[in-house]
Amino acid sequence: MIHLYWGDGKGKTTAAMGLVLRTVGRGGTAAVAQFLKGGDTGERYALAQLPQVLLLPVPDRVKFTVSLSPAEWEAEQARSLALLEQAAQAARERRCALLVLDEVCDAVEAGLLPLEALSQTLETLSCEIVLTGHVPLPQLEERADYITRFQKIRHPYDAGKQARPGIEF
């Protein structure tokens, strides 16, 4: 089944990683592909210690899409498509019970990943899949079995507070 976690609220990635923990806790394996994110997150550090979890590589740091030069944009497009292909291959080869495609909706919405490529990939997989992002694409909403919206009511960032390790990342 396909899970779609979307919205402007905090917790989409955390919920997806919680499902990874639940899957592993029940004897399954999981693969995690993160789009538009760097490697400096508490979730990655913790999950890297579990042999049942495959974390696909991400850059140490990632620029916001609005800050990318044309050459960086092109490189990020190629990286996003390659990451999707790696994720699908890993899920098949490892017979994963769960595949997380974190921020994949935003990669598609930004134009870094073709929706057609994502849709075709979803058709070829036979595992539980989690898609996260800020904007729910209608085509993905139609296909999702679970849809959960994360709505921000209040966040310290709005008051100028910086993100804190262990809480926001």
Describe the structure.
With 169 residues, the protein is α/β, with parallel strands linked by helices. The protein has one domain: Rossmann fold, CATH 3.40.50. It is 40% helix and 17% strand. It is built from 6 helices and 6 strands. It has a 6-stranded parallel sheet with strand order 3-2-4-5-1-6, sandwiched between helices. It is globular and about 45 Å long. The two termini are 27 Å apart.
Largest sheet: 6 strands, parallel
Number of domains: 1
Overall pLDDT level: 95
Strand content: 15-25%
From the coordinates shown, what is the CATH architecture? 3-Layer(aba) Sandwich
Q: Which regions contain 5 or more consecutive residues with pLDDT less than 50?
A: none
Oligomer: single chain
Q: Taking strands numbered 1, 2, ... along the chain, how are they ordered across the largest sheet?
A: 3-2-4-5-1-6
CATH superfamily: P-loop containing nucleotide triphosphate hydrolases
Helix content: 25-40%
CATH topology: Rossmann fold
Alpha-beta classification = alpha/beta
Contiguous helical run count: 6
Helix and strand string, N-terminal first?
EHEHEHEHHEHE
Shape: globular
Number of DSSP-assigned strands = 6
- Gyration radius over CA: 15 Å
Which CATH C-level class is it? Alpha Beta
Termini gap: 27 Å
